[in-house]
Structures are given as C-alpha cells and as structure tokens.
Specification:
mainly alpha; 2 domains; 9 helices
Length: 174
C-alpha cells in the first residue's frame, strides 16, 4: 500500500475490492479497514449476507455493537433481579450456616492430638540424662520430633555435650 491509496478520496476503502486492489494493512483510513472487511467477508457468512444485501461495513459493526450492549444490559438486569430476590432471611440463614461451619472447623482444630511420645516415658528418659538426640535414636524418632514432644510437654531439655550447653537457669533455689 502506498500513500496514494490512503489519500485518494475515490479509492474504495472499507470494501473487499479495496483490499484486493492493495489496501491490505491496518493503516486504512476507513472506519472499518479493508483488511477487516475482506477477512470477515470470507469467513463470516452473516457478514457476507449483510454486505450483499447492501449494508455498509460501518452499519454492520454499529448494529453488532448495539446488539452486544443490549445483551450485556439484559444480563446485568437479570443478575440484579436474581440478587434482589434473595431475601434478608435467606442471607441471614446462609451467614449462619457459614459461621456454624467455621465454628465446627475451629473446634476440630482445638481437639488435642495424641502425643507422639507419652509424657511419662519422655520424662523418665530425660530423667536418665538422655538428650533429645539419644531419645530419638532409642525410640526411632528424629531429634526434632523428640524436641517438639518435649516442648509440648513443657519438660526441660538435657544439654547435648556435642552441641551448645544448656542455658543457665536463674532464680532462687532452696
């Protein structure tokens, strides 16, 4: 396409003929480009029928936009009508069902789980002077599992001689 095609006022823009004669880019000065008209004419039977009936591409596009806007408005009205039909009682009932489900889930999470290592057995092993690592090796758990069970049971830790020393406890002893 050259500048003569763009500036020529007699050139048949927005037509299939305009595309076939050389207006093949998106720089067509018409409201609906020759490229779009050619593509739709060859690929859209309804568009072809309307062109053959004498409608211009601009009229067809305007009618399609109007139809799309009407469909969108109809959908919006239907959604609003459906939402307003739901009464306050229905909303309250739905809210209560939702809150009851949340309360049940929260209660399920608060049920204490069975301890990994029974407290008395863990206390006895700690009383023997074993570290978390040694207890884990004896019972078949990892050091972290034993440490978690000990912390949950609120039992003091025994220092691991290979690791850092136990923190010094401050306070009055009798």
């Amino acid at each position: 396409m050259n500048a003569d095609i763009i500036t020529d006022t007699t050139y048949p823009h927005s037509t299939v003929d305009g595309f076939e004669k050389g207006c093949t880019t998106g720089h067509c000065p018409a409201e609906v480009s020759c490229k779009t008209v050619f593509t739709r004419f060859n690929g859209d039977y309804a568009f072809r029928r309307q062109i053959n009936a004498g409608m211009t591409p601009a009229e067809i596009v305007a009618a399609e936009r109007k139809q799309a806007q009407e469909a969108a408005d109809t959908d919006l009205r239907a959604k609003k009508a459906k939402g307003s039909q739901r009464s306050a009682e229905t909303r309250d009932a739905a809210r209560e069902r939702h809150n009851a489900a949340r309360r049940a889930k929260r209660a399920a999470n608060l049920i204490p789980q069975k301890a990994l290592i029974p407290r008395d057995k863990l206390a006895a092993l700690l009383g023997e002077g074993l570290t978390d690592r040694q207890i884990g090796e004896r019972l078949g758990f990892t050091r972290r599992q034993v440490a978690g069970a000990r912390n949950t049971a609120k039992l003091p830790r025994n220092p691991d001689s290979n690791r850092r020393p136990a923190p010094a406890t401050t306070g009055a002893s009798s």
